[in-house]
Amino acid sequence: NEVEFVILPGWRMEEIAASLPTSGLPITPEEFLSLVRAPRTDFDFLVGATSLEGFLYPDTYVFARNTSVTELVDALVRNFAQRLQPEFYTGFEQQGLTVYQAVIVASIVEREAVRDEEKPLIASVYLNRIRIDMNLEADPTVQYALGLDPVTGVWWKSPLALSDLQYDSPFNTYLYGGLPPAPIANPSLDSLQAVAFPAETAYYFFRAKCDGSGYHAFAQDFQEHLNNACP
Hints:
Layout: E1 2-6, H1 13-18, H2 29-36, E2 60-64, H3 69-83, H4 86-94, H5 99-112, H6 119-131, H7 139-146, H8 189-196, E3 205-208, E4 216-219, H9 222-227
Antiparallel strand pairs: 1-2, 3-4
């Protein structure tokens, strides 16, 4: 009479929707997307949000098989609210961010990080860029803007082509300064914590190491960043 429903960290709302037909729940992807794309204000962190993207907390849930779409979505958002401890609010404020802005940054960190232990470092890079009004230039925001790749059938095109960085969208942080208009994915607690309590660094750049380890090489200036390129 119960089903286990799993949301992975870094999924966008469409990926959650795509998992519904095989979940055992009587909810269609269309029903789910219609509800999560509607603005809500029943939590203070949702004021001004145009959808629930970013607030559909990644976790393993157990639902009754007859769970409605409203009950499902409410459970995901309530779970996010319960995880957001008071110290997170303080941490976000110390970084000069509202909760909504912090979730936007955390969603980018989630998509960038391969190793969880690097999340505070990656968060520090983006927060450092924000402080000097430097473009975020985050590949995941371009991937989000591009949407579903018709060739591979996946939502996160990788690798990106140079021409993709010119794709005109307010989510493209290569073309537009500041934060994208909304979160690009649903971040884990680790990513939210990394934004609330980032590493203190002078880094403004990072790129994947050449050893396939999933770790990144961090740099303080662009020349150092270029020197970190793979041979």
